[in-house]
Amino acid sequence: MILGWETLVQRNSSERRLLKTKCSFSKVYPNSCSLDSSTEVQTQRYSTHDQMAARDWTDLPSELLPLIADRLGLIELLCFRGVCKDWNSASSTASAEIEALPNHEPWFLLYGEYNSQCTLVTESGRKYSITIPELDGATCLASSQGWLLLFREGSMFFFCPFSRAKIDLPGQFPHMVISGHVAIFSSPPTSQECAVCIISKRNETELELYVIHRGAITWTKHELEASPNKIECAAYHYGFFYFFDNKDWVVCFSIENRSLRLAKVHYVESAEKYLPLRFSSNYEINKMKKRLGLGQGFPLSTCGTTVSCHSADMMVPYENTGNAKEPGRYRLKGVWFQPRFHQINQKQSW
Fold it and tell me: Helices (DSSP H) in the chain: which residue ranges?
């Protein structure tokens, strides 16, 4: 089914291996992929070494290294970059081939509220333990094209978990505590056209929406007297931010006109002339969750994303399960994201 309201939406209708750079990866579950070479592989290496004259791996011709790096997937690329300084330098312009592939399920990053130990779950369900200090005490508000929008102690920043690229947003966000906020950004933070939009319910009858554009130093506040249900999905398309609740209502904000309104979502049979977005089906959500290996009702606060697909991009919802909101309880958080390896200039600013 496809829904429309001058726009369209549809409802219900590889990883390889990882070494270490500054992040460390290790085996965490029985079905996890360990970074250590197997006994069989090690034996083969020793056998080959015995048959050949001793030669150090650093003897690989330097001109071959970039060619090798360009042909690696994301996990392999991280392994490659962690071998030594020369290999890291040689792969500085490489990007993982998975980046350009549509119709791939997102990966998942499970992290704690006050520590830097995380679990990475790939598309096939393989799990890696990874240390990301930037996630210590942070909350992910948005995820798009491999970039995460993180909130920590009143400040926000864009972050790529694989390359560790980080871009700070200027100033302080008007709220020091994040609860029930849902965010989306229009384009990668390296784009001059990037804008960030964050929505939350001030009370049962009023909405607050904050917007900031690249180059601005303060947030612009917009208000709307409306009472949609819990916001579950967010998306951007051609100058409009869309926030969908779980009762077929949508909040729409126009960047050009700075207008904010609430409308009912209507279902249609064709995606033609409508917004090329669709909700993920229950089957798709359950299939993705099955990879995580978490029990039913496991307390988890999850940041959604939008997955690139051929016909209509799939929106993965924001969720709170179990007692994820229970005050004073240790919580785990998670974020669905597309695996990307973004590199930026060290002087990059927003």
Answer: 39-51, 65-69, 74-81, 85-90, 282-292
